[in-house]
Structure formats: structure tokens, C-alpha cells
Automatic annotation (TrEMBL):
GO molecular function: DNA binding
UniProt xrefs under InterPro entries: CheY-like_superfamily (IPR011006), NreC/VraR/RcsB-like_REC (IPR058245), Sig_transdc_resp-reg_C-effctor (IPR016032), Sig_transdc_resp-reg_receiver (IPR001789), Tscrpt_reg_LuxR_C (IPR000792), WalR-like (IPR039420)
Protein name from the UniProt record: DNA-binding response regulator
Modified residues (4-aspartylphosphate): 57
GO biological process: phosphorelay signal transduction system; regulation of DNA-templated transcription
PROSITE patterns xref list: HTH_LUXR_2, RESPONSE_REGULATORY
Domain HTH luxR-type: start-end pairs: 142-207
Source species of the chain: Deinococcus cavernae
Key words, A-Z: DNA-binding, Phosphoprotein
A Pfam short name: GerE
Domain Response regulatory: 6-122
Amino acid sequence: MSEPVRVLLVDDHAVVRQGLKLFLGLDPDIEVVGEAANGEEALQEAQHLTPDVIVMDLMMPVMDGISATRRLRKMLPDTEVIALTSTLEEHKVNGAIEAGAISYMLKDASSDTLADAIHAAARGEVRLHPEAARRLVRDFRGGEMRESLTPKETIVLQLIAHGQSNKEIAADQGVSEATVKTHVSRLLSKLGLDSRTQAALYALKSGIASLDGVEV
């Protein structure tokens, strides 16, 4: 039996945190291990708790969620961040993804949708609000390709855009998970990108993959 996904909740409203904690507590495979009221507290709690996933509000006092996400991704690269906010303003959407958030969700998402995003993030999979995905694809400015992708790397990129984890890609392609990790690392380097989310956006923007069938 696998361990539950350990989650840190970050929001400046205690009522929101308690509501999220209540709903997520219904999922036996999710454990809320801590809370924080702003980005600065999030950095402290994350360093102490090393959660698997951080659910991060963006508009908070002391330190906003985008700044906190950028610092957290450098401090704890194995911890994924889900942006959970009430806005689809372009600078917030773009800022969160550029900072390293793996997913972008709105606060009106159902508890099941959020739980799915948390489990997906723990597997390294992308989940985006549909409108956020459209705006990101429209506005995305990818890095300059340094080398051509191999046919296998192109397939892996397509599968990343379709929301598959390394484990799922390995099963789909009949190779080891370590081989997939190597392909992912190489294609990110060739594309001048920093994350799977950016790789997915590149695939959508360039036409390598389409929004049809993409997990949003």
C-alpha cells in the first residue's frame, strides 16, 4: 500500500484552509501535514515538513504565492506546487507557471477535481484550468530549440502534453522509467525549458500536441 500524498496548504484566509483541509481529509490517500498563511510561512513550513505537494494561493500578504513558488522550487525541487487562486488574470497565470507551478486551478474547483490535481502533481502530471491552458498556450514564449528532438523525444513530449507521468510513458513505450527520465531531461535541455509544464505548453503551442485529450 502506497503512502498518502503529503500536502501543505497555503492561503491567507483561515476559513479557506479549514475548508480545504476538511474536503481533502475525505480522501484517504491525501494527508494535510501543515498550513501557512503567506509565502514566507510557506517557505518555513515546507523546509520543515518537506511535503510532496503544496497547494498555493497567489494573492497573499508578506510574500505572494508566485514569489514563494519560485523560491520553493529552488529549495525543494522534488516538491510540486499547485497554484489555487480565484483569478485568471494573464500575469498571474503566466507568473505562476514561469515560477514553477505544475498546475493552475481555481478555488471554485470541486473537491474531487482538486484531489485529482494533487494526486497528479505527486506523479509529476500537469493539470490546468481549461481557460488557463488556452491563455498559456496563446501567450507562451518557449526557449529557443538548441538541437532537434529525436523521434522518441518527440513522442515523450506529446505524452507529457497529454498529462502522462514518467511511469505511464514508460509503460506506453515499453521502456524503463529511467529511460523516460533521460528523454525528459534531454528534451527540456534541447528546448531551453525548466519544467514539464513548460514542455507541455511548448508541445501545444508548436502543434506537436493539441488541447484535445489534454488533462485540463
